[in-house]
Amino acid sequence: MDRESLHTQNLPFDLASVAAATEVLAVRHYDSVPWRVVEMDGELDISGVPLMRCHLVGDPAYVVFDLTRVPFMDASTLGIIVTSWRSATRAGGSVRIAGPARQVRRLLTITRLDQIVPVFASLEEALAGPPVRSRDAS
Predict the structure, then answer these.
(1) Which secondary structure element, helix H or strand E, spans residue 29, and what is its range?
(2) What CA–CA distance (Å, rounded) separates 11 from 3?
(3) Residue 11 CB coordination number (10 Å)
(4) Cα distance from N-terminal residue to C-terminal residue, the chain
(5) Ordered structural domains, the chain, with CATH
(6) Alpha carbons 23 and 33: distance in angstroms, whole number
C-alpha cells in the first residue's frame, strides 16, 4: 500500500506496515455529525486491532461501528468496542453498532455486549434519531 492510498483512507503515513499486514481488512472513518462512523470491510481479528485504533484517535464521544461488511469478528474487536464505549460514556457520549452479520450478532449476544451497546440492523437506523447517552461505564 502506498502513501497516497493511506492518505485517502485517513491513515497516518507511519501506519504503512500495519495496513500492509491487514490486506484482507479495510477500515475507514468519516464524520456524520455528531457521529464518527468507523466502517470495516473484511474479517476482524487481532491483526486488525492497530488499524481500528488509529480510526478512533482523539476518543470521539459518538461512534458508530458499521459492521455491515464484516462476516467474522473475534474477541479482540470486542475489546476495541468496549474501550471506545468506556471513553464515549465518560465524555457523555455513546457508541452504536450497525448491521452485524449473523455470526457477529451471535458473538454480541453471547458476550452480552448487545445489552450495553445498542445494535441496529442498518447504518441508517444507527444514525437516525438523537444520540442517547450510553449507560455509565463501570
Answers:
(1) strand 26-32
(2) 9
(3) 21
(4) 40
(5) 3-127 (3.30.750.24)
(6) 29
Q: In terms of C-beta density within 10 A (0-12 exposed, 13-18 middle, 19 or more buried), how is residue 124 classed?
A: exposed
46 exposure class (CB count in 10 Å sphere: 0-12, 13-18, 19+): exposed
Compute φ and ψ for 104, nearest 5 degrees. -65, -45
Question: Are 117 and 78 a contacting pair, CB within 8 Å?
Answer: no
pLDDT digits (tens, 9 = 90+) for 22-33: 457 899 999 988
Average pLDDT value for residue range 93-106: 96
Tell me the H-state helices in the chain: 3-8, 16-21, 49-54, 75-90, 102-110, 123-127
Give the tens place of pLDDT for each residue, 100-132.
999 999 999 999 999 999 999 999 999 997 776
Tell whether the model's pLDDT for residue 17 goes beyond 50: no
With residues binned 3-state (H G I as helix, E B as strand, rest as coil), the percentages for the chain, rounded to 5, are 40, 20, 35
At 68, the amino acid letter reads: T
